[in-house]
Specification:
The protein has 478 residues and is an alpha/beta fold. Helices cover 29% and strands 20% of the residues. The strands form four sheets. Strands 1, 2, 3, 4, 5, 16, 19, 20 and 21 form a nine-stranded mixed beta sheet that branches. Helix 3 packs parallel to helix 4 and helix 4 (165-178) crosses helix 7 (216-233). Bound molecules: manganese (II) ion (2 copies). Residues 60, 62, 317, 319 line the site of one manganese (II) ion (MN).
Length: 478
């Protein structure tokens, strides 16, 4: 047997199911041995006393995503993926978006050009499907699924993105036939439009009214409807960015009826609330995202959903638009009405530290749950497991060695994204990656980035077992 390149020694190694004190042997970028004691490597990193986890898989983040609104995505694949690895995330799955009238293949080709030569961590693509024409559904999409793009996001709202229910059924049928995972943004678009028009007529256009225009029933109803549509086709779906108790209960109820409905939530629903949208001087716009942050009771419900397994995935929904920028939150200059403010908050870098500190550190979740929701489950659900998402012989050596003893305050100036704010500014936490290792390379150590630009590789995704359809579609589909 050839020698090892690197050993991570003496750490407490957590996976989605185990907690083991062992050494990790790495060669050619992969984990090749796990043992009580290893030696004979070119480099040995002593992780004594430290928690060691798989690198994070952020399966919902927007990086260099083009838009038709005039807003600009602040992070390209270089700044976005550097920000990821500084926070312990070693795999990202952003979105190749199809604009209406555009071929899906063209969208994918364009997105490859944006990533290649820039990404410093490995990446796969979800597709965003906005124009399910016969050509797209009959040929392009099946061919792309076969080529390793095995998941896509659909929207029930946003005028330029939304599908109606019959289009959603079409998409679910193709997903079932070809074995792809469908992610659903669930909000009732007509309710949002109606409420927004009413608010505007009343002159209520400040950032705080963004939350008023998308109250919980809007999300709850669409979540219920998406689940019902998935039931008709008998194919699993994943509801993204669930913000509070009532939508979560729809998912829990479907799960308890035996349906394979997956749920995702995000840091903004644990650590932000609608009060953050009410900050003076347009500062509330920093926290405008959809669905909106709710209230402290809903935050507690989301914690409960993570610890009890209603949610399989905890992702950032990193949507980097700058605050003080006419192509960012101040779209067009000044203080736009809430309807015109680009949606989304940045969070690639802070996702893992926040959950390690406030979840594991405060005893709300255990380490195995942390690993499952930040890495393992996303890798499984999107066809990247076991190459990504775990610490096992044969897996890529994507590893985080944690410092969970130093207290620090989140400051945007310390982060590496290209955004001029973080919604978590000033939050005290007690967890940050001491060292991040990606495919066997140390890419972050003691506060310094050591990753070569463009080292990240494109990952094709297998057809996930998690997406397999059941035996009971409403009508025969084959
Ligand atoms: Mn969304
Ligand atoms: Mn998103």
């Amino acid at each position: 047997m050839r020698g090892l390149d690197l050993i991570v020694a003496n750490g407490t190694v957590a996976t989605g199911s185990d907690l083991v004190k062992c050494d990790i042997g790495i060669a050619d970028g992969r984990i090749v041995s796990l043992a009580e004691r290893l030696d004979g490597a070119r480099e040995i990193i002593d992780a004594k006393g430290a928690i060691v986890t798989p690198g994070g898989v952020d399966s919902h983040c927007h990086i260099d995503q083009p838009s038709q609104t005039g807003a600009v995505c602040a992070d390209d694949f270089h700044s976005g993926t550097i920000s990821a690895l500084c926070g312990g995330t070693t795999t990202v799955v952003p979105f190749a978006v199809q604009f209406r009238g555009q071929s899906l293949r063209a969208a994918v080709a364009d997105y490859h050009r944006r990533a290649e030569g820039k990404a410093v961590v490995d990446y796969a693509f979800h597709l965003i499907l906005t124009d399910p024409t016969e050509q797209v559904m009959g040929q392009e999409l099946p061919a792309l699924i076969e080529a390793g793009y095995t998941s896509f996001k659909i929207y029930m709202t946003y005028d330029d993105l939304k599908l109606d229910d019959s289009q959603v059924l079409d998409v679910l049928e193709v997903a079932r036939r070809h074995g792809a995972m469908v992610m659903v943004h669930a909000e009732n678009t007509d309710c949002i439009t109606w409420l927004t028009e009413r608010l505007e007529r009343l002159g209520k256009t400040a950032p705080r009214y963004h939350a008023t225009s998308r109250p919980m029933p809007v999300e709850r109803e669409a979540t219920h409807r998406a689940i019902a549509l998935s039931e008709l086709i008998d194919v699993p779906i994943l509801i993204v960015h669930v913000s509070g108790r009532e939508a979560m209960e729809e998912i829990r109820r479907a799960q308890s009826r035996g349906m394979r409905i997956y749920g995702e939530t995000c840091p903004q629903y644990l650590f932000l609330s609608e009060a953050d949208l009410d900050k003076p001087d347009f500062e509330g716009a920093k926290c405008i995202c959809s669905p909106p942050p709710r209230d402290p009771q809903n935050q507690e419900s989301i914690w409960n959903g993570i610890s009890t397994g209603v949610f399989q995935v905890f992702s950032s929904d990193h949507s980097p638009t700058r605050f003080d920028d006419p192509k960012g939150k101040r779209l067009g200059g000044g203080t736009p009405i809430f309807r015109k403010v680009p949606n989304g908050v940045p969070g690639l870098e802070t996702r893992l530290p926040l959950l390690m500190s406030e979840g594991v550190g405060r005893g709300r979740i255990d380490l195995n749950t942390f690993v499952r929701v930040t890495a393992t489950n996303a890798a499984r659900i999107y066809g990247l497991y076991p190459q990504k998402g775990t610490i096992a012989v044969g897996s890529d050596a994507d590893i985080v060695i944690w410092d969970t003893t130093t207290e620090r305050v989140i400051r945007n100036g310390d982060l590496h994204h290209a955004v001029d704010y973080t919604p978590f500014e000033g939050k005290r936490i007690k967890a940050w990656p001491h060292i991040t290792i990606a495919r066997g390379e140390v890419v972050w150590r003691d506060g310094a980035v050591t990753a070569r630009k463009g080292r990240g590789r494109f990952l094709t995704c297998a057809k996930p077992e998690a997406a397999r359809g059941g035996p009971n579609p409403a009508i025969p589909l084959e």
